[in-house]
Amino acid sequence: MEILYQSSSFSTVKVVHGDELLAESILISTDFEAVGRLVADLKSFRIKDARWDVYRSPGNSMNGGKELPELTGVEAYFSAGGFLRRAAGDEAGGLPRELLAECVKGIIQAETFIFIARGYPSAKAYEDYWDKIYLNVCRYYSNLERIARRWFDYIGDYHRAGNLFNRFLHCRVCRRDDRYLTASGSFSDSFHELGVRVDLNDKGAIIDCAGNFLRAPDQVCLENREHVFKLIGKEIARMEKKEIGELVGGPQGCNHLVDLIHGIGKAVTVSLGINGEK
Description:
This protein is α+β, with helices and mostly antiparallel strands. It is built from 8 helices and 9 strands. It has 2 domains: 8-112, no CATH class; 170-272, Sufe protein. Chain: A, CATH 3.90.1010.10.
């Protein structure tokens, strides 16, 4: 078996200077090394500083970096997407925008450990807020009547200071002795852990797959394993992220599973030499 391509991304959110959050998202792969960075106010999540740097790219064609003062004052929360698109656009093939979006996702996840500073009087008030804004968005919040474990029952009494959140996503594509491909990916963050493997023929179509969750907030989340098998017959390298989301469950699915499959698809795209933005 020959390794064709590897990609690893890491996101982390830390408290710095007592009242600021530092979020970084780092990509290191066979063809890229890059980082996106946000500094935001701990209470308001308003961005104070934003920057991206690409250190290595194919032919060094996308190398460079830039401060993004246009993002100053923007809340690093669910509504930040449009601001990121306008500020970063398609520079460096859209990679800086993706990295900064991962920083925002990390800040949203880190909120679990600083909800008091964010203005929520109790853990229950914070849970009630998420029950409302995320209703029918993923399998957990689409089945609140079925869940056996609430969010803070899952988190427990553990409180963090300094480091608030970490996320890893790794993908690998190998050529087998029969010339077919095997692509695998693993996703692990402070709250979730899952893995997926797909086998592809010489045309890029998935002929077999497997996957499961190792950690998740509730048993209902583990049911997302059933969606992995819907990938059979699909050409993963040609699937847009929205299409993947619709295929693997929509509101009955898992955003983290979508992120992982999309990451595997991008790795397969490079390995097959298929061009075009995913």
